[in-house]
Amino acid sequence: MTIKVIMAGATGWVGKALIPAIAAQTDMALVGAVSRNAAGQDSGVTAGGQKNGVVVSGTLADALSSASDVVVDYTKPNIVKAHALEAVSKGRHMVIGTSGLGAADYAEIDKAARANGVGVLAAANFSITATLMKRFALMAAKYVPDVEVIDYASAGKADAPSGTARELAEMLAEIRQPATARPVSDVSGVPETRGAAVGTGTGVQVHAVRLPSYILSCEALFGLPDERLTIRHDAGSSAAPYVAGTLLAIRRVSEFKGLVRGLDALMD
Ligand SMILES: NC(=O)C1=CN([C@@H]2O[C@H](COP(=O)(O)OP(=O)(O)OC[C@H]3O[C@@H](n4cnc5c(N)ncnc54)[C@H](OP(=O)(O)O)[C@@H]3O)[C@@H](O)[C@H]2O)C=CC1
Ligand SMILES: O=C(O)C1=N[C@H](C(=O)O)C[C@H](O)C1
Q: What percentage of the chain carries pLDDT values higher than 70?
């Protein structure tokens, strides 16, 4: 069966890499593309390549008016949830790459997806090595209770923390033992410098750094008396690392009913 795919965020950094990649798959067909500013143009051309005959729509609603199976979203934190709810309400499976959502948003999308009998795969980071970083950090958290997350990104990144750091912190908070660090509420000085607690219970402290020269790096920092472990991922300047993981998600998302979080769900 050919999987008919709509690419929302077709003219973005990641979307431009995915448009030719989706079109090149023998088991997929690119049937729609979304960008407000490129509406009416050919999506192959706006992605920097040859004409592919798929005209860009200005809204997801427009793109959904034709038949499709899966919507892929690499847009912006302020629109991704609305896109997800719209796509699943129209019976489409959804692959979410866009950052900015948290556990409560995903619970809402999960409910809507289950009600409509479709699958959603949301991964804060579709790169294989970033996914391994998360997996290794979750393994370490079973043995070392004290962990904090440092999130490094470009000066202009729209959201903080990054999706990568948020997913990691939320999952660490679910499995790690209580930390031995002094509670932030007992800290004097400027307690905000201890970062923000992300996740259930006391959460995991996340520190977001935003500076020119970073793309996205994420560190899980574990401490025990007299020793320390750092597990870190650094993203490079191209969107290539996210392509293979996103294609895998497009192929597999219809196997689910409801939302599954993290590329690692597909990696075993
Ligand atoms: N999960 C992962 O592995 C990765 C996630 N990301 C995340 O993906 C998201 C996108 O990143 P990136 O490609 O760098 O973003 P860009 O800013 O380069 O591109 C955003 C795209 O979304 C479109 N867009 C923006 N707003 C809307 C809207 N309201 N309706 C429809 N389309 C819209 C833009 O077109 P226009 O403005 O014309 O509408 C553009 O095509 C970010 O949240 C980023 O953090 C990034 C890399 C990897
Ligand atoms: O905004 C980005 O650039 C990226 N965002 C993703 C995130 O928020 O985690 C991950 C990706 O490495 C780059």
A: 100
Q: How far is the CA of 37 from the centre of ligand 1 (A)?
A: 12
Is the confidence at residue 1, as pLDDT, over 90?
Answer: no
CATH 3.20.190.10 fits 128-235, yes or no: no
Which atom belonging to ligand 2 lies closest to the Cα atom of 165? 9
Task: State pLDDT tens for residues 150-208.
Answer: 999 999 999 999 999 999 999 999 999 889 999 999 999 999 999 999 999 999 999 99
* Distance between Cα 152 and ligand 2 center (Å): 10
Is 248 a pocket residue for ligand 1 (Cβ < 6 Å)? no
Q: Does domain 3-126+239-266 have CATH number 1.10.1060.10?
A: no
- Dump pLDDT digits (tens) for 42-75: 999 999 999 999 999 999 999 999 999 999 999 9
| Residue ranges of the chain that CATH labels 3.30.360.10 | 128-235
Tell me how far apart the alpha carbons of residues 61 and 230 are, in angstroms, rounded to a whole number: 44
For the chain, the average pLDDT equals 96
C-alpha–C-alpha distance, residues 62 and 268, integer Å: 37
Q: Where in the chain is the domain with CATH 3.40.50.720?
A: 3-126+239-266
Helix (H) or strand (E) holding 96: strand 93-96
Give the Å distance between the CA of 66 and the centre of ligand 2.
30
Half-sphere exposure of 19 (CA within 13 A, CB side): 28
Q: For the whole model, what pTM was predicted? A: 0.95
Ligand with smallest separation from the Cα of 57: 1
Q: What is the DSSP string of 178-205?
A: PP-SPPGGG--S-GGGG-EEESSTT-EE
